[in-house]
Protein 1
Amino acid sequence: MFAIMQLIGGVILSLGWIPQIIQILKSKSVADLNLKSYFLMLLGISLMEAYAISLAVTGVGLAFLITNTMSLCVVLLVIILVIKYRIRS
């Protein structure tokens, strides 16, 4: 039951980034985004990813690994977009 709750919660948290990504892609503007904040979030999620991998290797925590990996990917995408659109402007 808790694994299902983890999956649902993690998916919701990961999907929460989608509106920001869509806004960046539509406006092509990242002037108001703080890149340092996103790098700190990437660092935190990366550290949690290492923990999630260690849990998954022992046979528990697969839901945590899946949802954490999703979060890692979307935060990385935001960072890439911020860098891309800052270089263009």
Protein 2
Amino acid sequence: MSEGNVAADQLRLLIERIERLEEEKKGIGDDIKDVYLEAKATGYDAKIMRQIIRLRKMQPHDRQEMEAILQTYLSALGME
């Protein structure tokens, strides 16, 4: 029975840890929303800022490949 108590205690601690991290994640998400609202109030476009952040996370080669494919598609559709 002792092993069951140890496993239950470990499970409880892991769940509590996850709950704390979820709360922190929510707080960080709220902070990010506040920064986007501040940027919007200053005249920046939050949608474009999100795109820039997404692009900055990409590897340069992947970003260049995506941009080349996008240009090919735009050209094929006569959108250039």
Protein 3
Amino acid sequence: MRKIEFVSCHKLPERSFFYKGKQFPFCARCTGIYVGYFIFIPLLWFIKIDIYWALLAIAPTMIDGLTQAYFNRESTNFLRFSTGILAGYGLAGLSDFIAYWTVYCFTHFILN
């Protein structure tokens, strides 16, 4: 599991999950973000996410992370993972929004 080293993550043991005594290659929050992103990317073919819902879904992760960093608050791995899944959902919607408008602008303004 430690072969995935190309992603920037602090990988602190106290903020990571363990499986059979081995630490996950990402912290709990990053694990949630990746799980949420990879679950919701295929669902975007069927369900579109409004940009405001996408940004709203990212907000709990930002609030959790920033309050930990600046207010000396310690979060739980379950909360980190849960808010990470929401952020993955929001990032998937944000990616879809950016891709849609990139293609739209390219086809309507550059090709015409």
